Automatic annotation (TrEMBL):
Substrate binds at E39, H40, T41, D42, Y229. This is Galactokinase. NCBIfam families: gal_kin (TIGR00131), PRK05322.1 (NF003705). Pathway: Carbohydrate metabolism; galactose metabolism. It catalyses: alpha-D-galactose + ATP = alpha-D-galactose 1-phosphate + ADP + H(+). It is found in: Cytoplasm. The record marks R33 as: Transition state stabilizer. Residues 290-369 form the GHMP kinase C-terminal domain. The gene is galK.
Length: 393
């Protein structure tokens, strides 16, 4: 229970007792995540390298004798109720947040699980809208809770896949597998190398002494993300179609080697060429990063993070003034091994690998330089890689 502090758990138990008049029988947690490297590779069947973070969703619950699911969100001060006998999307605005628990119950029942009603209180400390996967954490936590209440278990890979299905088919957001996967299967002090085509994964140790992950939030609304995401997917498909003329056996951009791309890139239109170059070189950077960390070469890993940001900025064109300002402020400081934007882009967060002795200066100077450049205030979150979803009561 390293991430969910004893105080948070105690407060949640107390709130549950005040709301329902009994003590909770169950408590689960599921963390948010940060992707260290491997951006916009997942929908090209490539490699990603995320870590769970020390921020999570906590849910306390007790089992009901009927099929009702009663929920209360401490963060929003809102309640919602639905029945497992007929799960429908929330019809009123104040209950829209409950579409994620509803989605998970819907997916589990479609899978054949016989669920029981619960009454639950939810609380999270993952910054919303920051691209740190609070929605995936909520889905995974709800899945774990509903299974525990029904005395059922499910392989964590299957739980992640069900959470993805729930968000795609019930909530209606066409997400990849990375967020749910790392929330369910994250390991303390490790990043998770994931092949998004095969779902093969490997836990890779991160430095546990003298180095921290630092997430800096631009606090910029990300209004362009959906349209740009769809556009980038289309541009990758165009690049793939062009490359298939010369490499007919390829299924996705992940199948193109750097040597093959270099040979044929001049035959692609400029924009698809740039998008393909990012995806192909980013996959290579992920593989090099995994190897670097296994050998303890933090400096090389940091330089690969820097190269990833430049590629996302110049070839994939999903960075923005705010992300670049945070990254460049981090690059200017001694003790920062590497820094890059993380997530879909056009706002959200950066992730930096920072030596312990440089943390104080980073937390002071990066926000100062960011505000001078953009007029906005940045939020800083210091973390280590955290454990994935678990039952803690």
């Amino acid at each position: 229970m390293q991430q969910a502090s004893a105080n948070r758990v105690e407060r949640l138990v107390q709130q549950f007792k005040e709301l329902y008049g009994v003590a909770p029988e169950l408590m689960v947690r599921a963390p948010g995540r940060v992707n260290l490297i491997g951006e916009h590779t997942d929908y090209n069947e490539g490699y990603v390298f995320p870590a769970a973070i020390e921020r999570d969703i906590l849910i306390a619950a007790s089992v009901r004798p009927d099929k009702q699911v009663r929920l209360f969100s401490l963060d929003m001060g809102l309640s919602a109720t639905f029945t497992l006998d007929a799960i429908e999307k929330a019809s009123i605005e104040e209950e829209r947040w409950s579409n994620y628990p509803r989605a998970m119950a819907w997916a589990l029942q479609n899978k054949g699980f016989s669920l029981r009603g619960v009454q639950a209180v939810l609380q999270g400390d993952i910054p919303p809208g920051a691209g740190l996967s609070s929605s995936a954490a909520l889905l995974v936590a709800c899945g774990l809770l509903l299974l525990a209440a029904a005395h059922q278990t499910l392989d964590l890979v299957e739980l992640a896949l069900l959470a993805q299905q729930a968000e795609r088919e019930f909530v209606g957001v066409n997400v990849g597998i990375m967020d749910q996967f790392i929330s369910a299967l994250g390991q303390k002090d490790h990043a998770l190398f994931i092949d998004t085509r095969t779902l093969h994964y490997e836990a890779v140790p991160l430095p546990t002494s003298g180095v921290f992950l630092v997430i800096a939030n631009t606090n910029k609304p990300r209004g362009l993300v959906d349209s740009a995401y769809n556009q980038r997917r289309a541009e990758c498909e165009e690049a793939l179609d062009c490359l298939r003329r010369f490499l007919p056996s390829i299924r996705a951009l992940r199948d193109v080697t750097l040597e093959e791309f270099t040979r044929w890139e001049a035959r692609l239109p400029e924009v698809p060429r740039k998008r393909a170059r990012h995806v192909i070189t980013e996959n290579e950077r992920v593989l090099q990063s995994v190897d670097a960390l296994k050998r303890g070469d933090i400096a090389l890993f940091g330089s690969l993070m820097n190269a990833s940001h430049r590629s996302l900025r110049d070839d994939y064109e999903v960075s923005c003034t705010e992300l670049d300002a945070l990254v460049e402020a981090a690059w200017a400081l001694p003790g920062v091994y590497g820094s890059r934007m993380t997530g879909a882009g056009f706002g959200g967060c950066t992730v930096s690998l920072v030596a312990e002795e440089a943390l104080e200066r980073f937390c002071k100077e990066v926000p100062e330089r960011y505000q001078e450049t953009t007029g906005r205030e940045a939020s800083i979150l210091i973390t280590r890689a955290a454990q994935g979803a678990e039952r803690i009561l």
